[in-house]
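User: Some background: our group keeps a shared notebook of sequences we're curious about, and every so often someone picks one and asks for a predicted structure to add to the entry. Today it's my turn. The entry only has the sequence so far, pasted here. Could you supply the structure so I can complete it?
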Amino acid sequence: MIAVRGALGSGCPGQAKRLAMSRTLARLTHRLVPSVALLVVALLVVASLAVVAVAALPAIARDPGTAEPASSPAAAPAPAPAATAPRVSAIRTGAIPTKDSLRLTLTADTGNIRILTDAHGEVRYRVRIEAEASDPAASKRLEQFTLAGRGTAAGVALTGQMPGPRDADRVWVTYEVHVPRRYSLEISTQAGDIVTQDIDGRVVLSTGGGNIQAGSIGDPRQQSTSGGPDRPPHRILMARLDTAGGHILVGNVAGSLRASTAGGHITAGNIDGDAILQTAGGHIHVGRVTGAAQLSTGGGDIVAESADDGVVAETGGGRMEFGEVAGVVHARTAGGGIRIGRIAGPTALDSSDGGILLAGVQAPLHASTRTGTITAWFAPQFGGAAASGATSGAPDAARAAAPSELTSEQGDIIVYLPRKMPLTIDALVQQSADRNIVADHSVALRVRYEDSSNGRALHGQCDLNGGGEVLHLKTASGNIQLRFLDADVERRLAAQQADLLDQRRAAQRALSLDVQRQLATQAAEMTFSGASATSGGALTGAEADPPGTFAELRRRLESFWSSELPVTAEDEQNRLLRSVAPEYPEIARQAGVEGDVTLRVVVGKDGAVEDVAPISGDPVLARAAMEAIEHWRYSPARLGGRPIGVVTTVTVAFRLQ
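Assistant: Of course. Here's the predicted structure to add to the notebook entry:
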């Protein structure tokens, strides 16, 4: 069963708030258009007066020797960030000679920081300090800001701070620092975003609550010479990224990566080393991990293209999806499903309520779920990998190398086997009422009923091709199916796996773009001389715009008159003229995958769907929903009598019946 319903999207931070505001604005549009028009005219007049007032206020620069007057045409930087009120500012600049392969240490008590890697033989910095012009102590605050830069044996040290926390809360600070490409970074700010370009050295970035956006880190060409006899090059920690609550977005890392956030998403490229990624509730998406992967989230999804040296993964409620996994694997989810494209090492999986879908199983396997279906496709190499897992000496490997077992309390178990595989199967249905063990007609399955404390149990056993590795299958109240992997089935499964791989990559790109959009829309703009960049999510402390300001009102007006007005799913659903029902993907049906999918839908001025992007939900189900919604048609939304494009959400419920 597939149902479509309207709901406020909650898959992206801040989205529910924006959609709630849009609902109020949409209602006001229908009732108060004339009044709103008059109000807008009045506000535009106020805006014009504010601009004149800003132009009339002299800028303040009080740092002799290193300060540049912000009003000087020759020294003026790019336009200042969008202000909540007229501001005065001072700019500090400097340059310190340095050499390649050294380190920049930057410590700030507040402020957004951007690092550019285009310098040669020096570290250049430009720092802008701002305060509200209406603050009687504005001039004093700018004078009190201290900025110290000096050369050290390790490289360059730069420190910026205000006398106290109260002063730090009343100023806005932005840092732009240019360093050589072959340089290392140690950056810390107590409140603000950090943005860095590609850099070849090691990186440590820490913020008390902002976002971290980093390019590629480390030089792969240097890996062959950077290790030691006891520490392979790819085991060297190249990047450590920590934020108290923002998103983390990083490119490829030529070494190991540690990243943690108190609640945002973590998106990373390929990691040529170990990956330790932890978030209190966001999603984790990572490319290939050549080392060991430790991935943990309080409730988001975990998606990885591959892991070459084992995985320990845990989520408090999201799904897990891996392309290929080698080494010992331990994965646990409190609610979502688990999918793995190929298993080459001993594996233990546990899902409380979701299905488990496994392909290319080559090694001993333990998988259990409470309510979902387990579908496993065994490769011809299965059994040969058991010895390697058992001889590794590790307790986890020894445990996983025991006879394989698939257990589902309430769901079915479906197993695909190569015809020539030597295997001993022991299958048990604990509550046999209306339940069966179904096998290919060529399988000599011995079935008998047994009395137990739960009633009559159905027990089946068989030795395929003379018997071999033992595979235990157990379900409390589901069915068990044994199927052979014929050539046609193998081709179909291979095509489905290729499609899943494409969807994993698309999901990672979608999350990366979604994080980038949030970094671009939820924060004040970070502007620097010679280049500007939009910083990450909502700023904290001195960087945040206080409520009730002119800037907040201006943003609301811009959103109100935007060409793509955010509207609630309920309101847009009422304008739906034609819909196409999604088809339930067969691979999801076989795997017992179900759940809700929430999509972001952009509707053009003509009522046609222009763009559909996933917000949350299983990627296979999301793809099916997107393919259907692309053909939907709405009655054009109108504002003041004119057609306007809108952005909304659509939630599709996939249910197995």
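Suggested note for the entry: The first strand starts at residue 2 and ends at 5. The two ends are 6 Å apart (CA to CA).
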